[in-house]
Amino acid sequence: MYFFNPKLEECKTFAEEYKAVSEKLYGIIKVGAIDCHSEEELCEEFGVFEIPQIVIFTENYTDDGDRHRGEMTVNVISNAAAKKMQSFVSSVNTDNYEKFVERERETKNKILHFTEKKSTPTVIKALSKKFKDKLNFGEIRASETELVQKFGVTQFPTILALKEPEEFIGERYEGELKVDQLTKFISSYAYQSPKKIAKVEFEELSEKKFKNGSLCNVKKSNLCVIIFTPSDPAASKQLLDTLKPVIETYQQDPVQFTFMQGDVGVANSTKLFNGSQAVIYKPKKAKFLSATTSSANALSE
3-class DSSP state for residue 91? Predict the structure, then answer.
């Protein structure tokens, strides 16, 4: 908010500069002005007695605002305002990519922003707030070379809507980094249901996947079926293939089908699940039921 007096030469000189600020932040941050010559009492209510003055407020209505003490230039004012913005953009890297993908996977599509910069652009922050109930926003730095290469990103910034997370495929945004154009692109994903993932294979339950919450998440109410398979890869595959019909039976249910192979599986089965061949595990309540792997029907029952 810009507090000014139109009769002051300093305010007259700054008018065009402030207009440029409003144009730069259009659709991202609300920009307003109060004429303290005609609205003297209102300016006093804000505690503004020195003119010209810029005060930057957060979205919190009880916020008294911060007096801008820096240079009265477009870039300095815009950057100061950007620092006060809320951001709902997650930092995504190789270690937490799977967790980001799985978060609200059934209800929200994902938007990824690839960047070389250390700070998140104001337009991305603004859109992450606008669509926070509809989309999950993630940001991948250029230094995350493994992810950057998997997505085939060669230019920065790049924005894409995630379509095939396991294949690292998404629809790229080809326009300018302008709020109106980006909103049009992003809104089409905000109001469409995420693609349903057909469960066709058992997923290996590693320590990493358990800790990052992508499998058998302790915060979710989903069931987690864990099969403990032999060390021999061929024998392990044969067992899982035999049990695969169970996955098809429960495709539409909140159940994750996983396996642990060899010594890791034996150790965990012995330590946590009384040496069971398989368990139906409820992570949120830390309860389990032993199951048999003699046949798909037996496991299903």
Answer: strand
Map out the domains of the chain with their CATH numbers: 2-83 (3.40.30.10), 89-190 (3.40.30.10), 203-300 (3.40.30.10)
- Residue 157: asked if its preceding bond is cis (omega within 30°), the reply is yes
Alpha helices, DSSP H only, in 46-106?
74-83, 97-102
What's the pLDDT tens digit per position in 9-28?
A: 999 999 999 999 999 999 89
Distances in Å between the Cα of 104 and the Cα atoms of 107, 211, 247, 280 are 6, 17, 21, 23
Q: What would the pLDDT profile of 68-121 be if each residue is shown by its tens digit? A: 999 999 999 999 999 999 999 999 999 999 899 988 888 999 999 999 999 999
